Amino acid sequence: MKILKINMGNLSVKEDLVTKYKRLGGRALTSKILHDEVSPTCHPLGPNNKLIFATGLLTGSGASSADRYSVGGKSPLTGGIKESNAGGISGLTLGKLGIRALVFENIREDFKIVHLSKNGVKFDDAAPILGKDLSEAASWIRGKYGKHVAVWLIGVTGEQKMNLAAIAGQDKDGHPTRYNGRGGLGAVAGSKGIKAIVLDASGVEKNRPKRKEEFKKSLKQYHGWLMETPATSKVLPEFGTASLVKTTNALGALPTRNFSIGVMEDYENISGEKLREIILERGGEGTPTHACMPGCIIRCSNVFSDKEGNRVTGPIEYENIGLLGSNLDISNLDDIADLNLLCNEYGIDTIETGGALGVLMAQNVIPFGDGKRAVEVLKEVKAGTPLGRIIGSGAEVIGKIYGTVHVPTAKGQTMPAYDPRAIKGLGVTYATSPMGADHTAGQTVRAQIDHHSPEGQVEVSKNAQTVNTIWDHLGMCMFSSGAVQGRWDILADLVSAYTGEEFTGEDIVAIANETLKVEHSFNRKAGFTKEHDKLSEYFYYEENKGSKTVFDVNQDELETIGVERNDL
Amino acid sequence: MKILKINMGNLSVKEDLVTKYKRLGGRALTSKILHDEVSPTCHPLGPNNKLIFATGLLTGSGASSADRYSVGGKSPLTGGIKESNAGGISGLTLGKLGIRALVFENIREDFKIVHLSKNGVKFDDAAPILGKDLSEAASWIRGKYGKHVAVWLIGVTGEQKMNLAAIAGQDKDGHPTRYNGRGGLGAVAGSKGIKAIVLDASGVEKNRPKRKEEFKKSLKQYHGWLMETPATSKVLPEFGTASLVKTTNALGALPTRNFSIGVMEDYENISGEKLREIILERGGEGTPTHACMPGCIIRCSNVFSDKEGNRVTGPIEYENIGLLGSNLDISNLDDIADLNLLCNEYGIDTIETGGALGVLMAQNVIPFGDGKRAVEVLKEVKAGTPLGRIIGSGAEVIGKIYGTVHVPTAKGQTMPAYDPRAIKGLGVTYATSPMGADHTAGQTVRAQIDHHSPEGQVEVSKNAQTVNTIWDHLGMCMFSSGAVQGRWDILADLVSAYTGEEFTGEDIVAIANETLKVEHSFNRKAGFTKEHDKLSEYFYYEENKGSKTVFDVNQDELETIGVERNDL
């Protein structure tokens, strides 16, 4: 495997072997390269930031739910280190090309399509797809480069270097709807003039496990767990992530009306059950059970269709429902799907978008609950009007534009769909993760703990942060968590057999913890201190009337996470 | 002297003696109270911030150029401690009422007029003046409360809690044009529902020096210096601060086209000489020599009139010319006056406004050099349109909205009109002052040093920061600097005789340095580190072609300022 470095300023390419980093993949690799090579105080959109794509250690191995990849860079949204990972087939294809990491350096004004194949790298003018919706751009790319290629794309928002711009990868059916959503990394790509990356692995020899028999044995065990665990074999395939709506609403944690309260009166209209019912009822192109990666056993994704059965968009995730639905007081799944569709067409993070619209609704710029109006206003993002630019800047910046304290963020990033006053372990994650408010950086919603109590949350979040980093290192989906968590030795066998490097269960945990240290170290050098390990202040003094709680986890205890991980 | 505390939440009033703080005035007092009473991580617009008005130790003494006062609070623009001071008669009148500090606590939704007189505090509904231009609001106040009152006011921008909202005090002629401009303190006032503060000192006995004869003697000496020093007796009265245009242009430090270069081809059209020529030629209500405070010998202010001799606005300061003129590529003083007028009517900081418009011009939202269009666009701030809101958020936030690295700020605040690549001592001040980019926090333009050289700038800035803090403590205008600087013993005699407290020259210096420590300490607890002691990154790698320099002061040496002052 190699590391490919592309200088977008002069379009030069350099190839390194991964030698130094050979035990690192995914987030462990993006974060380590950022730590080693990027000045933490650089401007995220300036020439000194880098944008790094890296495959997980298991990506391409054939293990279920393990074809994920990471994108890393200094985030324009948080000002800190960022990693955002996704499934689909783009990371898989990068791995097929023998590339462990793809590092983009420098900036440029115009936009290029970067084409990677066994013949090397070429740069094409991106003008024909600038300003286009992502589905159209992806079609154009397939038309030009062949139906077999995989792509990464930024949308009109990335071209405009907006904070909520994401990077879209492609699912197994060719839709550019698998998202490196968080942290504004689409804007970093935009600053570097990367409109699209086309991955053509034709004619490349397949990666095979280094120790085939061992790998087969471990794989069987791993797949067996996935199939015998209810979450991965039944709940997620049937209801997808939206199965969480009922859970969080019952906890008073479903963000409603700009994170002012954690329950929604008509939550049943947006539940996973309702979503499944509608999709099945409408038939046609819709499906409640859809795999983003080939061979995934969990298949938590879905395709949502309209009343005529025509595909609208997909997937409708729990986060999308929480942020674009309840958070906006919208309880109509068709409206949510329309918003979701625009996010997918413009290349934007649904969470940050929901956060942005929520703050604007609380400021009476858009009426709460008015899905049609929200759709119209979101279209201004594409047009780049002043209001579109405002939405594109994300919730934290909008709070500054409108002078309001009611901004559901931590380290500048919008919270995912869990009110931290009601699921306090996630509050700890939001406050202490080097990633800012990000559930995938330390998900605690399924922990066996009283989520309303401040006790024990620091430990729960701290462990979850390590566990999530393990998935991000290996390229595994966090939904395998229920089946695999804690079985590190067997997982290590799987990784060892596939890569030929020796890993123990302890190694797997140690690399995750080391990665967190590397990230905390980067952030500290970027100017973060324990004072930044906080949520927006209102969560501490305004009660969530759904859960009847404020966020009251002991701050000194909470800060121990950052302190411990700051000793590099 | 007393400290008056007003809780704007429940409109309750508490009175304290200044005992604990009796040797502190102005900035020394606002910063100390903030340090002692405000949580550094609080939201600047939330209930836990305070807004403090404090008179300088010499305010009201009759000493020339010494009736200034400070306003302090945690800044929504920088996220750190803020002090902004101004002249005029409002601080003077607060002093007459026997109030050393006026502390506003808590927040409220509606707006009040806070009326202070010998009868105490009363609160009136501010509805009749909401949304009005400041000149109209001030007239209304005089009509209601009498022509003899002094006022502080916020404009439509403060009502909207915009980052560039300032607090306007009143000059000796009743115009609300003396500004606590920097740091968005008008937004803090807005968050607390303070639309206006009316100060009625009628029937109050005059403050007199505690030791009259000693005071008279020191005062004579001090006034003698002011009258014999060319800067204070000739240059500033004749040309005002605009005398600097030629100086900075010659240094390549006149910010031009969004701080991209430091020289302007037709700088002579906006020089102090040209300004004087136009004002004298037009006659009528205009004057090139105007005192903002009664009895001021320096009289650096001016009144600008139109071709018919009717007052347009005043003062046209160097900073206004640099930020609203050359920085926008506008070289027509009438256009600059029109922009200046709108700033005065809307209650906004001219520096931050010029910074905001400059970034927008560089993004092609407004054409560079188009004064008429700039005026039209600035009117959107009053209307609160999305573009108006964008302008109101200030340059740093606009940089995030438009995804650009070309933002002339330090700690979130727009730089005043000196390119830090060409006057490097000011670059050090911008980077290291607890106030962010602020020339009045450590002005080095008149230092005898090669301004293009990186050598010696740290020492020059460090000393200037102490000296500026001395003025801010005593309520003195920094323009007395040329005459008084270094003569601390005589100044101490003046203060001792007036207040009855004993001060030596060393005490005066020590209090200033202690104040800086208090401020650094606050900022450190707010999350600032040495990594924040930087300018926008582009100043380090993009050459100012006017001066042929980048900002290259040794960073380690520069950071010693913050380190030394961080030992509280």
From TrEMBL, chains A, B:
<keyword id="KW-0004">4Fe-4S</keyword>
<dbReference type="InterPro" id="IPR001203">
    <property type="entry name" value="OxRdtase_Ald_Fedxn_C"/>
</dbReference>
<comment type="similarity">
    <text>Belongs to the AOR/FOR family.</text>
</comment>
<protein>
    <submittedName>
        <fullName>Aldehyde:ferredoxin oxidoreductase</fullName>
        <ecNumber>1.2.7.5</ecNumber>
    </submittedName>
</protein>
<dbReference type="Pfam" id="PF02730">
    <property type="entry name" value="AFOR_N"/>
</dbReference>
<keyword id="KW-0560">Oxidoreductase</keyword>
<keyword id="KW-0408">Iron</keyword>
<keyword id="KW-0479">Metal-binding</keyword>
<dbReference type="InterPro" id="IPR036503">
    <property type="entry name" value="Ald_Fedxn_OxRdtase_N_sf"/>
</dbReference>
<dbReference type="GO" id="GO:0033726">
    <property type="term" value="F:aldehyde ferredoxin oxidoreductase activity"/>
</dbReference>
<dbReference type="InterPro" id="IPR013983">
    <property type="entry name" value="Ald_Fedxn_OxRdtase_N"/>
</dbReference>
<dbReference type="InterPro" id="IPR013985">
    <property type="entry name" value="Ald_Fedxn_OxRdtase_dom3"/>
</dbReference>
<keyword id="KW-0411">Iron-sulfur</keyword>
<dbReference type="InterPro" id="IPR036021">
    <property type="entry name" value="Tungsten_al_ferr_oxy-like_C"/>
</dbReference>
<dbReference type="Pfam" id="PF01314">
    <property type="entry name" value="AFOR_C"/>
</dbReference>
<dbReference type="InterPro" id="IPR051919">
    <property type="entry name" value="W-dependent_AOR"/>
</dbReference>
<feature type="domain" description="Aldehyde ferredoxin oxidoreductase N-terminal">
    <location>
        <begin position="1"/>
        <end position="203"/>
    </location>
</feature>
<dbReference type="InterPro" id="IPR013984">
    <property type="entry name" value="Ald_Fedxn_OxRdtase_dom2"/>
</dbReference>
